[in-house]
Design a protein that fits this description.
Its EC number is 4.2.3.-. This protein is mainly alpha-helical and about 325 residues long. It is built from 15 helices and no strands. Helices cover about 65% and strands about 0% of the residues. The termini are far apart.
Length: about 325
């Protein structure tokens, strides 16, 4: 199989996952909102890059991932999806030190720091996310979100930057650990709490099953992302932290054989997640809440896959918002 013949829908078609495939009824207004945000607080990006983000239909991504949320609750969740997407994309060529600097400032804002006149619109969006969630979620929940954002950025995006800079790949064993974090998806796990008006106690949150579910959930989304975005990543040599590329380089596999192995890893993780959902331990009075959260976690996986397949040009190599290294507009 040649890279140009690769089609992700041959591996992850719509409806591949065993959860509902829905879309938030506020999707139209969400589209108006996010294009407004791009033109208001992301003006440090070049006009070309802003237009590319508008064409990606990121409101449909948020609407599919959080189909059960009210407009009030989905707004900061949607704002976070746009914020995270731009953050992740525009770090493509960043050094480990740059990632660390952006992370520290963002975490400080999430934890309550006031904005300064020097803070660009990107950080204004972070403060709005914090304040909008603060209207209906407890302070301890926001602390979890901030701490988790730090964890995935420090041990994911920051660690990944070194491999991108040197164009090397880790072993498959190490990659599996790093990719779980570098997909920077753990915070989305907690956004489902906000979707369902839920806040798990520390005792439930720390339960080994919940921790294992979070790990599997993040990995599945990472493998899904790697499979859906592979054509974009094969079009340039800058992206090496993709499970298919890691398998190819470590084991000298053809693209087709690497895809077979990648799908096996994906499907094994998916089978374990579904098995845990079907045989939950006793969470006492939180049992129904945990079941509801599983619905949200699963719907997010399903919705994200549908978004990739039918709603966006995001991973078209010609449409992706590559950072423009020839200008200063990529400064976060």
């Amino acid at each position: 199989m040649k890279p140009e013949d690769y089609n992700p829908s041959n591996y992850l078609p719509q409806g591949y996952y065993p959860w509902p495939d829905k879309i938030n009824p506020n999707v139209e207004q969400m589209g108006i909102d996010y294009r407004n945000w791009i033109d208001t607080d992301y003006v440090y990006l070049s006009e070309n890059i802003r237009e590319r983000y508008k064409s990606m239909n990121l409101h449909k991504c948020s609407a599919r991932m959080y189909p059960y949320a009210s407009y009030e609750r989905v707004t900061p969740m949607h704002r976070y999806v746009v914020f995270h997407t731009i953050f992740d994309d525009q770090l493509e060529y960043s050094t480990e030190e740059e990632v660390s600097r952006y992370c520290d400032r963002l975490v400080a804002i999430f934890r309550g720091d006031s904005l300064t006149p020097e803070d660009p619109g990107y950080f204004i969006q972070a403060a709005k996310i914090r304040d909008e969630f603060g209207a209906f979620m407890p302070d301890e929940w926001m602390k979890r979100l901030a701490d988790t954002f730090y964890t995935v950025t420090r041990y994911g995006a920051q660690e990944e930057a070194t491999y991108k800079a040197t164009q090397t790949v880790p072993s498959l064993a190490l990659f599996k650990v790093l990719r779980e974090y570098s997909i920077v998806i753990f915070p989305y796990f907690y956004l489902v709490d906000a979707e369902f008006h839920t806040f798990l106690t520390e005792e439930v949150e720390r339960h080994p099953v919940i921790q294992r579910v979070r790990s599997l959930w993040s990995r599945i989304i990472a493998w899904q992302n790697d499979i859906q975005g592979l054509k974009k990543e094969l079009s340039k040599d800058t992206e090496v932290m993709n499970i298919v590329i890691v398998l190819q380089r470590n084991y000298n596999l053809s693209l087709e054989d690497a895809m077979t192995e990648a799908m096996k890893i994906h499907d094994d993780d998916l089978a374990e997640l579904v098995a845990l959902q079907e045989d939950l331990p006793d969470f006492g009075k939180y049992q129904e809440q945990v079941k509801q959260l599983f619905l949200g976690w699963g719907s997010l996986i399903q919705g994200l896959n549908t978004f990739y397949l039918i709603d966006t040009n995001r991973y078209d190599p010609e449409c992706f918002a590559w950072p423009d290294r020839e200008t200063e507009d990529t400064s976060l």
